[in-house]
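Entry for the shared binder. Reason: the reviewer on the internal report wants the predicted structure included alongside the sequence.
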Amino acid sequence: MAQKAAASIDEYISAFPVQTRVVLEQFRTLIHESASDAVETISYAIPTFDLNGKHVVSFAGYPHHVGLYPAPLGAAGFDDLAPYASGKATARFPLGRPLPEELIRRCVRHQVERITSGA
């Protein structure tokens, strides 16, 4: 039987084991700190932050990692994102290891700048 899609980020996070919930809440906090005007929503069944009607970033939980979408892979100044790269615009952060908080903040700020500059 398929699980019902979460209606809110709170509901989404509450469906995970404690260890994953803690990391997902960290992600949420880092995104709020870096994109304070962004609005929380659910898009494609995962937590998403929107600004000016556009998606800034999304994040999701998995059994062994949490993901950030889109990640500015290959963008100037983001060489330190390479160890977390997975796919064209996905960063995977393993559970059980500290999140690279400043890197995540930079990723979110990069997306905010991209959206607000019209790029």
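Summary line for the report: The domain at 9-116 is CATH 3.90.1150.200 (Aspartate Aminotransferase, domain 1).
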